[in-house]
C-alpha cells in the first residue's frame, strides 16, 4: 500500500454564484450533471485497496448544490469501505448554501469546512456576501472546524492586510491567494494582479501577522512558507511540494485528472468506470504528459537557490503562464518575492537570537521546534 493520497471530488459543476474568476465556464456551471454513487463506491474501493489513508476535498462547482442526504450517504459509504481512521473530508464551499443543519453535521462527522470569501473585498469577485459573512461569524463563535480562502484580484491587490485583519478579528484562519489566469479568468486578464503590487501587499499582511504577539490564527500561505524555510515542508502547500502522484481529481462524469485546477483534455488520466486501479490512472498517457512537462521545467529550475523549497512550483500555473515546461512566470515571481522575505524574517530571529515574545505564537512554536530539533532541514540535503 502507498501511504497517503489527497482526492478532490467534484460531485457537480453546478453553481449559482457565478464568481468572475471561476475555474469553470458558465456552460459547465449550468450543467445538471451529478456524480453517481456507483462511481463513488468504485473510487472508494480502489483507494481503500491501494492507500493507507485518503483525504477527500469536496469541490466544484458548488458542492453544497448537493443535498445533505448525499453527504450522509457518502460518509456511510466511506465508513463501510475504509473503516475508522483511514479517511477525512473537507468541503470547499462558497458558503451560500451553509445552514445550521449542515454545519452541525460537519461537526458531528469531523468534516472541515473551507469557505471561499474575501470579507471586505468580497464584491470584487462574487455577488453579495452578507449571508456568508454571517455564517463565518457564527462558526467562529462556536469554534467549528473551518477556514476561509480569499482570492485577490487586481482591483483589491493592495488590500491584503485589510483582509487579514478582518478575519483575524473574527477569529478565522485565512488563506490569501491571487487570481490565476485559468478558467473564466483566462479571458479576463484584468482580474489577474500585478505581481509586484501583489507581493508588496502580501508582505504588508505578513509583517503585521508575524509581529503580532496576540495573533491567534494562521495566515496562509505565509505560515506554510515559514515552516518550509525552517526545514519542515508542508504537503498542504501543494503548489510547492512536488504534488504529482499525491493528488487526484474526479469530475461528475468519472473523468480523472492530476489537479483540481483546469487541466487540458490531454491530461485526462482515464475514467473511473474504465480503470481497474488508481495506479493504472497514474500510468496513463495523460499523467505522462504533465509529468514530462514538469520534469523539463524542474530541470531549468534546479540551479535556483529556492528550488529546494518550491520544487519548481505548480505545473498548471506554469501551463497557464507560458507553458508547462517554462519557469519564471508570475506565480514564480510572486513566490520568490514572498518566500525570500519570509525566510529572511525567520532567519534573523535565529541568527540574532531575538526575543520570541515579540512574535505571534505560530512563529514562536515554529522557531522553538527548529531550535529543539536543528536537524529538521536535513530534508533538503
Quick rundown:
The protein is of the alpha/beta class. The chain contains 14 helices and 9 strands.
Descriptive report:
There is one protein chain. With 381 residues, the chain is an alpha/beta fold. Helices cover 41% and strands 13% of the residues. It contains 14 helices and 9 strands. It has helices spanning 26-29, 37-50, 68-82, 100-109, 130-141, 160-170, 195-210, 222-229, 278-281, 285-301, 307-310, 315-321, 330-351, 361-372, and strands spanning 2-9, 51-58, 87-93, 112-116, 146-152, 174-178, 219-220, 247-250, 256-257. Strands 7-6-5-4-3-2-1-8-9 form a 9-stranded mixed beta sheet. Strand 3 (87-93), helix 4 and strand 4 form a beta-alpha-beta unit. Helix 2 runs parallel beside helix 3 (68-82) and helix 7 (195-210) packs parallel to helix 13 (330-351). The longest helix has 22 residues, at 330-351.
List the helices and strands and how they pair.
Elements: E1 2-9, H1 26-29, H2 37-50, E2 51-58, H3 68-82, E3 87-93, H4 100-109, E4 112-116, H5 130-141, E5 146-152, H6 160-170, E6 174-178, H7 195-210, E7 219-220, H8 222-229, E8 247-250, E9 256-257, H9 278-281, H10 285-301, H11 307-310, H12 315-321, H13 330-351, H14 361-372
Helix pairs in contact: 2-3, 6-7, 7-13, 8-13
Amino acid at each position: 500500500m502507498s501511504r497517503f493520497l489527497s482526492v478532490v471530488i467534484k460531485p457537480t459543476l453546478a453553481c449559482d454564484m457565478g464568481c468572475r474568476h471561476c475555474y469553470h465556464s458558465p456552460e459547465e456551471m449550468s450543467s445538471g450533471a451529478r456524480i453517481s454513487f456507483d462511481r463513488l463506491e468504485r473510487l472508494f474501493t480502489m483507494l481503500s485497496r491501494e492507500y493507507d489513508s485518503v483525504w477527500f476535498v469536496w469541490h466544484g462547482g458548488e458542492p453544497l448544490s448537493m443535498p445533505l442526504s448525499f453527504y450522509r450517504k457518502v460518509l456511510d459509504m466511506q465508513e463501510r469501505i475504509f473503516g475508522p481512521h483511514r479517511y477525512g473530508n473537507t468541503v470547499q464551499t462558497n458558503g451560500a448554501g451553509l445552514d445550521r443543519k449542515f454545519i452541525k453535521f460537519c461537526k458531528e462527522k469531523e468534516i472541515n469546512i473551507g469557505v471561499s470569501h474575501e470579507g471586505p473585498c468580497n464584491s470584487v469577485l462574487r455577488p453579495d456576501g452578507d449571508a456568508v459573512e454571517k455564517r463565518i461569524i457564527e462558526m467562529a463563535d462556536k469554534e467549528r472546524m473551518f477556514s476561509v480562502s480569499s482570492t485577490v484580484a487586481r482591483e483589491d491587490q493592495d488590500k491584503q492586510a485589510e483582509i487579514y485583519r478582518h478575519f483575524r478579528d473574527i477569529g478565522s484562519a485565512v488563506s490569501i491567494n491571487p487570481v490565476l489566469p485559468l478558467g473564466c479568468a483566462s479571458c479576463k486578464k484584468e482580474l489577474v494582479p500585478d505581481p509586484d503590487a501583489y507581493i508588496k501587499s502580501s508582505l504588508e499582511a505578513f509583517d503585521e501577522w508575524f509581529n503580532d504577539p496576540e495573533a491567534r490564527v494562521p495566515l496562509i500561505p505565509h505560515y506554510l512558507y515559514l515552516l518550509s524555510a525552517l526545514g519542515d515542508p508542508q504537503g498542504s502547500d501543494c503548489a510547492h511540494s512536488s504534488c504529482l502522484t499525491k493528488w487526484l481529481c474526479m469530475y461528475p462524469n468519472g473523468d480523472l485528472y492530476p489537479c483540481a485546477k483546469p487541466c487540458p483534455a490531454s491530461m485526462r488520466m482515464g475514467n473511473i468506470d474504465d480503470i481497474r486501479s488508481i495506479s493504472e490512472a497514474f500510468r496513463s498517457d495523460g499523467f505522462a504528459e504533465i509529468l514530462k512537462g514538469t520534469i523539463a521545467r524542474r530541470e531549468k529550475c534546479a540551479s535556483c537557490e529556492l528550488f529546494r523549497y518550491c520544487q519548481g512550483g505548480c505545473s498548471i500555473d506554469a501551463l497557464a503562464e507560458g507553458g508547462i515546461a517554462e519557469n519564471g512566470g508570475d506565480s514564480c515571481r510572486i513566490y520568490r518575492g514572498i518566500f525570500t522575505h519570509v525566510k529572511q524574517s525567520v532567519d534573523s530571529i535565529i541568527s540574532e537570537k531575538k526575543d520570541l515574545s515579540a512574535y505571534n505564537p505560530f512563529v514562536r512554536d515554529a522557531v522553538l521546534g527548529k531550535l529543539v530539533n536543528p536537524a529538521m532541514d536535513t530534508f533538503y540535503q
